[in-house]
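If your schedule permits, I should be very grateful for your opinion on a structural question. I have a record of one protein: its chain in single-letter code and its fold written as discrete structure tokens. Kindly check, if you would, that the fold set down in the tokens agrees with what the sequence suggests. I remain grateful for any guidance, and I place the record below:

***
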Amino acid sequence: MPAVIMLTRKGVDRVDDAEKNALLMFLEAQRSSVLAIVDGLDLDALTTAVLPSGWTPLGLVEHLGYAERHWFQEIATGSVEPLAWPDDDHTPLTTPRPPSVVFAFYRAQCERSNTVIATTPLSAPVRARHPGWLGDEVTDLRRIILHMIEETARHAGHLDVVRELIDGKTGLGPR
């Protein structure tokens, strides 16, 4: 293979790594915000719906764990490990599980997602298709990461508002 092509490929790899690092930095900041916003809430605050839609802060954290699992394992890699519990055992965006289990689940899913990000090119096509219109938009790892930044940031905002309603605290998290 000619040297010019090798240099181009190495340059593409470096660009891909730099872009991955930037995307992961923003995703990690949003994940950290989610955890910082709910940090210090007691069981009652974590499991009580504050808004009329009925979701709970702990249920939203569990939902984000499911989203990480779905997008990075099911969609990006085409395979996912079974859950330790049935995934339909509760009202959406609530959870019957204790905070320690939910936070461990969320962190474990984020770690698995990071492994997928580290070992997969950004341009790698998805192995499964998400149903509906979003499946048409999210076609490679890059778009999965962008979607998860968007989804995590959106829910961090929801949590931020609820935390202010619970105890008046604002501005929690790294951003």
About this structure: Confidence is low (pLDDT under 50) at residues 1-12.
